[in-house]
Write a structure and sequence with these properties.
Length: 132
């Protein structure tokens, strides 16, 4: 069935599974962090670059599900990804060439559109405003 899906359908399917995994865990703090970081990540990627945006998430230890999802998705879609299967996306970005960075950035931004939409739909009960 996956062979007959468009790339955008495959993005949606993968993003849906990730959001459902976060939802099924049932932890409000994990759902809140996932939603907030997913919504902010595309702007961070555009303004600072993919590597900087991923480094920020790792430095703050934010949204491990989101980082894992991006690593998995880019590993599936960008076959020229440097590093071994399972390596963090940040490592692949740092060790990769400019072609990998360009492809990974474009694919992350396209994939994140689905993640953000599904997170908004599934986590409607969670405010978009970060608690202080």
């Amino acid at each position: 069935m996956a062979g007959h899906q468009t790339l955008d359908q495959r993005r949606a399917s993968h993003a849906w599974r990730v959001v459902q995994q976060v939802k099924d865990e049932g932890r409000d703090d994990a759902r809140r962090e996932f939603k907030l970081q997913a919504k902010r990540l595309p702007a961070r990627v555009v303004t600072a670059g993919l590597g900087q945006a991923l480094a920020f998430l790792e430095a703050k230890d934010y949204a491990p599900h989101l980082r894992a999802a991006l690593t998995d998705w880019i590993g599936q879609q960008v076959s020229a990804a440097p590093g071994r299967t399972g390596d963090r996306l940040l490592r692949r970005v740092v060790e990769g060439d400019s072609d990998f960075l360009r492809l990974a950035t474009a694919e992350c931004l396209a994939y994140l559109q689905w993640v953000v939409r599904f997170a908004e739909a599934e986590f409607r009960d969670i405010s978009d405003v970060e608690e202080v």
